[in-house]
Amino acid sequence: MFKLCVFAGTTEGRRIADLLSLQDALVTACTATEYGGELIEPAEKLKVLSKRMDLEEMKELFSKERFDLVIDATHPYASVVTENLMHACLETGTEYLRVERSGEGAPESAVCVKDIPEAVEYLSGAIGNILLTTGSKELAAFSGIKDFDERAFARVLPVESSITACREAGLKPSHILAMQGPFSVGMNAAMIKSVNAAYVVTKDSGKAGGFEEKALAAMKAGAKLIVIGRPESGALGSTFEETLELLEKRFGFVSRPSVSVIGVGTGTRAGMTAEAAEAASHAECLIGAARMLETARPDQTVFEAISPDAIISVIKEHKEFSRFAVMLSGDVGFFSGAKKLVPKLDFCDVRVIPGVSSLSYLCAKAGASYENTAAVSLHGRDAAIVPAVRRNRSVFALVGGENGAGKLIKELCSAGLENVKLWAGERLGYPEERITEGSAAELKNTKFDPLCALLIENDNIESSAAGLPDEAFTRSADEKPIVPMTKSEIRAIVMSKLRLLPDSVCWDVGAGTGSVSVEMALAAPRGKVYAIEKKPEAAELLKANAEAFGTVNIVSVTGAAPEACTDLPAPTHVFIGGSSGSIREIAELVWERSPHARIVAAAVSLETAAELTKLMNERDFAEKEAVMINVSKARRIGGYNLMTARNPVYVFTFQG
């Protein structure tokens, strides 16, 4: 097992120590202060030494431990420490590696000075208050500034040693800003204005040191930026990314980032489970939608990304982080992006943490059980809400878009479901949360927030059995001829032969009024039904019937088969109710596009039945069947009920 030592006085140093603790290595992380040691994430194979060491103490440590490598990730301005480390490694025969933080470069408006004495000289000849952001270690060197005790303010860490250094330098308590960073541009600007600073003194500590935020804040607050140049060191350094590559080549380490996929719940920190909150707080980098990132701490890096590919790109491009948290709304197992994301994270150590779903939250607010509730998401999806409400006593719907809930409620009313009971939950979990209760009729003119969910209860549910009454369908409009329709009894048998699944992709060829299309759409609520009809007047009726049943998963295709089908998605199930003499061509197109598709075809003429029989005998099928159905219905004549026979129908089934 390798032994490595990291002088981790910077953000990069802490991240390297964290990454190495996940490898097959014993790691010693050295920090100058106990506070610095507390910032390092504890690990089983990681030991932390928190004390300032001189050259002799370094040599003693290296001689005793015999490290395979010492990594110098100290601050770019800690030149004395770097020189001591180089000498200690040289004298003990220890391999040395310097991690160099890239500078940002001072803006043109800044005053660049070589060192602190030059900064003191410049500021002594200037007028106005001064904000020192260079730390507490060198405060005494700034005390030579003219009127230092009146003009100077220092921002330092909120630890005893920093406060002591401020007092020893001669700063008044009211001139000490003891705060822990990192700081945003806005926070920096507010501090500059609060002390009325005309000058901000900083070091070019790079991106990780918050240099850019200080430079932008000084410009925003109208203060002059004084940048102290970096001291020269004899060490040739590598960037953080280059250091990781060197460690991989030198020791064979594999950098597998740790990724927590977290269900944030309703979106607020208060709504997160304790496990989720802990995982999020331990992450160095948070990824998610803007609303989910509101839970981040100021010292955490955040990236706004939603799609799985965008999230993965962030993780792969930012090797400086070892612990990521992907923040997803609600619960990771309930209409969540985790479904597509997690399989793609095979290069990471993944932990999936569930959250409180909006379903369970809203049901709790409504005092309702959700064990038998059907869940539908309309947030960026095409889903049929009306059939779901008609066939379930309880439905939960996630809605999105501007007043999406209001549009859904109007859709329910248009479908004759104005008496269903609703609970509308807006901005669940937030201070402005609102729960509105009422019938669809009572709420149809209410405007709702885009962040809304609905719980719908229906006491008058309909049967899910196939074979809807023929009277439920419109067959003519504006005195136009009645369009042919597959009758209820035949439809029931056809549907039983089709054996649709909830997500089936269906073709209804020769759809007519769309009676079979509607039955298909109801049986496959997560699928699609492409209703192909060559007669324009029939296609219009088909659309009207689809709208009446709320089957938004029906796509009307006007044209003759098979030509009208060539650009459609490959089907899993096909019903052929009308072929205009092209039944062979239609069937062959289906098998060409989808060899395993299941076809059910209905024929009323002997010629069509004969053609289907030929097809049945020409190919090998996993399953094939032909049945003839004779239906007679009672009809009242005088004082008697007589059975009236209908034309026999031949139903053929082919399973590829």
Secondary-structure blueprint of this entry?
Blueprint: E1 2-7, H1 11-20, E2 25-31, H2 34-38, E3 46-50, H3 55-65, E4 69-72, H4 79-92, E5 96-99, E6 111-113, H5 116-124, E7 129-132, H6 139-142, H7 148-151, E8 152-156, H8 160-169, E9 176-178, H9 185-194, E10 197-203, H10 211-221, E11 224-228, E12 237-238, H11 240-251, E13 258-263, H12 274-282, E14 285-288, E15 301-304, H13 308-317, E16 323-328, H14 338-341, E17 349-353, H15 358-366, E18 374-377, H16 385-391, E19 394-399, H17 404-414, E20 421-426, E21 434-439, H18 440-443, E22 452-457, H19 488-498, E23 505-509, H20 515-523, E24 528-533, H21 536-548, E25 554-558, E26 573-576, H22 583-593, E27 598-603, H23 606-618, E28 623-629, E29 632-637, E30 640-645, E31 649-655
Parallel strand pairs: 1-2, 1-4, 2-3, 4-5, 5-12, 6-11, 7-8, 7-10, 8-9, 10-11, 13-16, 13-17, 14-15, 14-16, 18-19, 23-24, 23-26, 24-25, 26-27
Antiparallel strand pairs: 19-22, 20-21, 20-22, 27-31, 28-31, 29-30
What does this structure look like?
- By secondary structure, the protein is an alpha/beta fold.
- The chain folds into five domains: 2-103 and 236-251, NAD(P)-binding Rossmann-like Domain (Rossmann fold), CATH 3.40.50.720; 111-228, 3-Layer(aba) Sandwich (Rossmann fold), CATH 3.40.50; 258-356, Cobalt-precorrin-4 Transmethylase, domain 1, CATH 3.40.1010.10; 359-457, Methyltransferase, Cobalt-precorrin-4 Transmethylase, Domain 2, CATH 3.30.950; 470-655, Vaccinia Virus protein VP39 (Rossmann fold), CATH 3.40.50.150.
- It contains 23 helices and 31 strands.
- The strands form six sheets. The chain has a seven-stranded mixed sheet with strand order 25-24-23-26-27-31-28, with helices on both faces. Strands 3-2-1-4-5-12 form a six-stranded parallel sheet, sandwiched between helices.
- The longest helix has 14 residues, at 79-92.
